[in-house]
Amino acid sequence: MELLSIQQIEKYYGNRSSLTKALNDISFTVEQGEFTAIMGASGSGKTTLLNCISTIDRVTAGHIYLDGTDITALKGKALNRFRREQLGFIFQDFNLLDTLTAYENIALALSIQKKPAKEIDTAVRKVADQLGIADVLQKYPYQMSGGQKQRVASARAIVTNPKLVLADEPTGALDSKSAKLLLERFRYLNRECGATIMMVTHDSFTASYASRVIFIKDGKIFHEISRGQADRKHFFDQIMDVVTLLGGDMSDAL
Asked: pLDDT-derived band of residue 106, with 50, 70 and 90 as boundaries?
């Protein structure tokens, strides 16, 4: 079932004397339960695209529909409620509150929604088990490794059962071991829990965990490939072939 529909979106920055076209007539769809990666070099428009889908930025033209709702038309309280209830965000720099424990950071989104304490506790412990962080729930961010902090941030993003999880370079601040562990958890959430994930990355290894990769160049869709029944190593090789066509200017470390 189609969950996300991007229809001919464009995004301009600047004014008439100095106009930059960051996104140029981009259209694609994402199915419910799909794990999609957006790849492109720095300045390609991939983060702008994610920002438009997340409603952090507004499109200049075109429409974005999530589960039938035109999110480009939302404003004010309706927009805030949409972000709070329908989207989950995972950032490169974690964005955890230093004065709260891991448990409290994860529970915060549910508290804002005024969920009962028992329901919050059940949800937090369930997602902590799924992401392998049950042992750090009572720790503060400064007591955790980078990988643990990113998994706590991921737990916070999915604990409300959002329709779409948006991840912006989620492995960018992690070492290779922590990155692989996080990506394995993403794949588990996608395959076993049905989470729909859209992840922006410049890294081919990270993208190889997705089921589909859309390549952006100069604000346009350059190419896209789907994994199908291929294993991750073969899919990585396919991604690298496209990266070579793009100019090889993105990370290609396996």
From this structure: very high
**CB-count exposure of residue 140 (10 Å: 0-12, 13-18, 19+):** middle
For residue 191, how many other CB atoms are within 10 A of its CB?
12
Q: How far is CA 253 from CA 37, 212, 213, 240, 250, in A?
A: 17, 19, 17, 10, 9
Which helix (H) or strand (E) segment holds residue 245: the answer is helix 232-246
> Each residue of 184-220: pLDDT tens digit?
989 999 998 899 999 999 899 999 999 999 999 999 9
Rounded to whole angstroms, how far apart are CA atoms 43 and 61? 20
Give the residue carrying structure tokens 């100095």.
18
Q: Taking CA 75 as the corner, what is the angle to CA 71 and CA 77, rounded to the nearest 5 degrees?
A: 110
Domains, the chain: 2-94+164-246 (3.40.50.300)
Produce one character per residue of 225-252: b if its CB has 16 or more CB atoms within 10 Å, e if not: bebeeeeeeebbebbbebbeebeeebee
